[in-house]
Structure formats: C-alpha cells, structure tokens
TrEMBL record:
Belongs to the 4-toluene sulfonate uptake permease (TSUP) (TC 2.A.102) family. It is a multi-pass membrane protein. Keywords: Cell membrane, Membrane, Transmembrane, Transmembrane helix, Transport. This is Probable membrane transporter protein. GO terms for cellular component: plasma membrane. Its main location: membrane. It is found in: Cell membrane. InterPro entries: TM_pro_TauE-like, TSUP. The keyword Transcription does not apply. It comes from Spirosoma agri. Pfam families: TauE. The chain crosses the membrane at residues 45-63, 75-95, 101-119, 140-172, 202-220, 232-250.
Length: 254
C-alpha cells in the first residue's frame, strides 16, 4: 500500500470525523472513499477497516461533548450497553443475511425527516421538558436496541438517526442530542470493531492512520458545534440528511 493512497484515505477520514462529530453521517464520506480507493479488496474487509477510524472519532466527539454538555448518565450508560450488544448482534446478522432491503426503508424515513426539519424551524432548537424520567429511560433503551442493531447490520446515517431520536423522543435540542448520540455511537462502533477484529477482516495498515485522521477531524468538529450551537448543527443536519438521501437513492437506482 503506497503512501499516496494512505494520505488520500486519511484526508477523507479527517473530513468524515469532522462531519460525524457535528451531526453524524461521516460514514457517507469515509466508506465510499475506501471502496473506491482500494477496489482490489473484498467489500466486507473494507467496511471492517473503517470501524477503527469511526470508533476513534466517536470517542473523541463523545469526550469533547461530555466536557461541556450535561449528560444523563443514569440512563445513557445502560443505553450504551444495550446498543453495544445490539450492534454486535447486527454485525453477526450481517454475515448471515443480505442487507439490501434496508435501503428503501431508510430512504423513506430520511425524506420524511428532511421535510419535517425543513418545515419546523423550531425543531431541535430548545430542550423540551415534557418527557417523564420513566419515559426517557424506556425510550432511550429501546432506541439503543433498534439503532444499535441497525448500525451493526447496515450503518449509514446512524449518528443522524440517533440525533433525530433524542430530539423527537426525548425532547433534547440539537447540541444535547449530539452529545448523547456520540456516546451511544461510540458503543456501537466499539462492538463492530471488536467483532471484525475477531473475524480478522481489518486492514490495520490503513485503519490506524485513518483513525488518527478521523480523531483529529472529530476534535475540530465537536469544538465547532459546541461553539456555534443549535442553529449551526441544524444546517449541518439538513445537509447530511440530503447527502444520505442522494446516496441511498443513487444506490437504489443503480
């Protein structure tokens, strides 16, 4: 593997980490880049090799947010554990059955999310205090199970789905939702990473340099999101949802 190829992948991984730390969706950048750059390798191996960079970025984003945003620790810790187990199960299921049927479902959901966010200007701008502690716990744990499985089984858009869930189901604003989403996403990425390490499918020669680049991008992205606040994150959210819709739509047409 020549150095120029590694540098190209690191550049895309940096951008992926930056975007993912703000609102999720870094996989839309990182995954196509490695698939296009290293076509001589099996697709499962390339997907597996993006898990370590994604994990590094998620951990950095989670650390940056947790220092500045209050996290509901008594609920988020069990949610992370549930998401971890669900992600592992999703990765295991991926090795057994095809996941192509997930794209049409995800596309419909994302189009609806885009329209709703565009119309509802106040969506995610303030924290809504209407969800009881019992309901928060139940909804967060259910969301951890569903989206955790989705991340292990399919993946793209996981961070954005987590942010959406925290806003619509729990009542968080964008900033608080992003902070909690990064913690859960770190758990799902860790599960997938451990699974694929155990399967021996990771190209460490590119995974580790990409991890450093992703971590650096996540550091800057999280700091910028915290500095700029909810309106900035909302714009990024719409951009990433649009990119995800285009990507899924192109895959279905193709």
């Amino acid at each position: 593997m020549d150095s120029s190829t590694t540098l190209i992948l690191c550049a895309f991984s940096f951008l992926a980490g930056f975007v993912d730390a703000i609102i999720g969706g870094g996989g839309l950048i990182q995954t196509p880049a490695i698939l296009f750059t290293l076509p001589q390798y099996p697709v499962p191996t390339l997907i597996a090799s993006t898990k370590i960079p994604s994990l590094a970025g998620s951990l950095m984003g989670a650390f940056q947010y947790s220092r500045r945003v209050v996290v509901i620790g008594r609920f988020i810790a069990p949610m992370m554990a549930i998401a971890f187990a669900a992600s592992w199960l999703g990765s295991l299921t991926l090795t057994r059955v095809p996941n192509s049927f997930m794209k049409p479902v995800a596309l419909v959901i994302l189009v609806a999310v885009f329209i709703y966010t565009l119309i509802k200007k106040e969506f995610g701008q303030v924290t809504q205090q209407y969800v009881s502690a019992r309901q928060q716990r139940l909804r967060m744990w259910t969301m951890g199970a569903c989206i955790g499985f989705y991340d292990g089984f399919f993946g793209p858009g996981t961070g954005s789905f987590l942010v959406l869930g925290f806003i619509t189901l729990i009542g968080f604003d964008f900033l608080k939702a992003s902070a909690h989403a990064k913690l859960v996403n770190a758990a799902t990425n860790l599960a997938s990473t451990l699974f694929f390490v155990n399967e021996g499918k990771i190209l460490y020669a590119v995974a580790f340099p990409m991890a450093l680049a992703n971590l650096s991008g996540a550091f800057l992205g999280a700091r910028l999101a915290i500095l700029k606040g909810n309106q900035f994150i909302r714009v990024f959210f719409l951009l990433i949802i649009t990119a995800t819709i285009i990507r899924f739509g192109w895959d279905l047409i193709g």
